[in-house]
C-alpha cells in the first residue's frame, strides 16, 4: 500500500514565525509532489508543486524535496492568522500517471 | 472560467435511496476524479477517468458507479445509499501526465440517514 504520512497536529505557531510542515512518502517511483491548503468546510487548494530535489520558493512559501530520503516539506515564512488551515501533502502514484495519493493533513494554527 | 463545478452542494438521503452527483470542468482537462473525505481519513479516491471514454476504480469504489459523459462532465452515482456513505464528496480534474496538478470543485456534503 502506497502511503503519504503527515503529523496530524495541531501545529501551533506564533504570528510572524516560520511554520514547518513535513511529509514522508513510500513510493520511490513518485516524481511529482504537491502541497494543498484546505480551510475548514472548503475544498483543497493547490499552493505549491515541486518536481526536483532542492527548494522551490513562491512568495512566503518554500517547498523542499529530498527524493533519496523520500521527504517533502513546506515552510511558511512570516506566518499570518490567515494561514491557519489544514495542509495536505500529495504525491503522484509512480505506477499510474493520473493518480495522486494524499496524506491525511496537518492542522496548522497561527496564534496572534 | 468557472474551473470545476459540482452539484448539489448539500444533500440528505434516506438509506436505500439513489442519487447522482454531477461534476463539470471548463479547463479542457483530460483526467477527472471523485474523492470522498471523512474526518481524520484524508481524501480517498473513489473512481477516476484518465481520459474521455475510460474509467477506473480507486481505493474505495464499492457502492458507487461513475459515468464520463464527455470530456467536461464526470458523474458519480450512489445506487442504494448507506449511512457509511455519509461524507463530503469532491470532484477534481487535471491534465495528463505525472506532473499535472489536480484542481478541486467546491464539494458536496452528503448525509445518509
Walk me through this protein's architecture.
The complex is a heterodimer of chains A (112) and B (113). Chain A is 0% helix and 53% strand. Chain A is mainly beta and 112 residues long. In chain A, a hairpin with a 7-residue loop joins strand 9 and strand 10. Chain A is globular, with a radius of gyration of 13 Å. Chain B has strands spanning 4-7, 10-13, 19-25, 31-38, 42-49, 56-57, 64-68, 74-78, 87-94, 103-104, 108-112. In chain B, strands 2, 4, 5, 6, 9, 10 and 11 form a 7-stranded mixed sheet that branches. In chain B, strands 1-3-8-7 form a 4-stranded antiparallel sheet, with no helix packed on it. Chain A binds chain B through residues 8, 31-32, 34, 42-46, 49, 51, 88, 90, 92, 97-100, 102-105, and chain B through 31, 40-43, 45, 48, 50, 58, 90, 94, 96-107.
Short description:
Chain A is mostly beta strands and 112 residues long.
What's the gyration radius of chain A in Å? 13 Å
Query: What's the multimeric state?
Result: heterodimer
Rounded average pLDDT of chain A:
94
Shape of chain B: globular
Distance between the termini of chain A: 40 Å
Low-confidence regions of chain B: none
- Biggest sheet features of chain B: 7 strands, mixed
Can you give keywords for this protein?
heterodimer; A: 112 residues; mainly beta; 6-stranded mixed β-sheet; 5-stranded antiparallel β-sheet; B: 113 residues; 7-stranded mixed β-sheet; 4-stranded antiparallel β-sheet; 11 strands; globular
Amino acid at each position: 500500500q502506497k502511503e503519504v504520512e503527515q503529523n496530524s497536529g495541531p501545529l501551533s505557531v506564533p504570528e510572524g514565525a516560520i511554520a514547518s510542515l513535513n511529509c514522508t512518502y513510500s513510493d520511490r517511483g513518485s516524481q511529482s509532489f504537491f502541497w494543498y491548503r484546505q480551510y475548514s468546510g472548503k475544498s483543497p487548494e493547490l499552493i505549491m508543486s515541486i518536481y526536483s530535489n532542492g527548494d522551490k520558493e513562491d512568495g512566503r512559501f518554500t517547498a523542499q524535496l529530498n527524493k533519496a530520503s523520500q521527504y517533502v516539506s513546506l515552510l511558511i515564512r512570516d506566518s499570518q492568522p490567515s494561514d491557519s488551515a489544514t495542509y495536505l501533502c500529495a504525491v503522484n502514484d509512480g505506477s499510474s500517471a493520473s493518480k495522486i495519493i494524499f496524506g491525511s493533513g496537518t492542522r496548522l494554527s497561527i496564534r496572534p | 472560467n468557472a474551473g470545476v463545478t459540482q452539484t448539489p452542494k448539500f444533500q440528505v438521503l434516506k438509506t436505500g435511496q439513489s442519487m447522482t452527483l454531477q461534476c463539470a470542468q471548463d479547463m479542457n482537462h483530460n483526467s477527472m476524479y471523485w474523492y470522498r473525505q471523512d474526518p481524520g481519513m484524508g481524501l480517498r479516491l473513489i473512481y477516476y477517468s484518465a481520459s474521455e471514454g475510460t474509467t477506473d476504480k480507486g481505493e474505495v469504489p464499492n457502492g458507487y458507479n461513475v459515468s464520463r459523459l464527455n470530456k467536461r462532465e464526470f458523474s458519480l452515482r450512489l445506487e442504494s445509499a448507506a449511512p457509511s456513505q455519509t461524507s463530503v464528496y469532491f470532484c477534481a480534474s487535471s491534465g495528463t501526465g505525472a506532473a499535472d496538478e489536480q484542481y478541486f470543485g467546491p464539494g458536496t456534503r452528503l448525509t445518509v440517514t
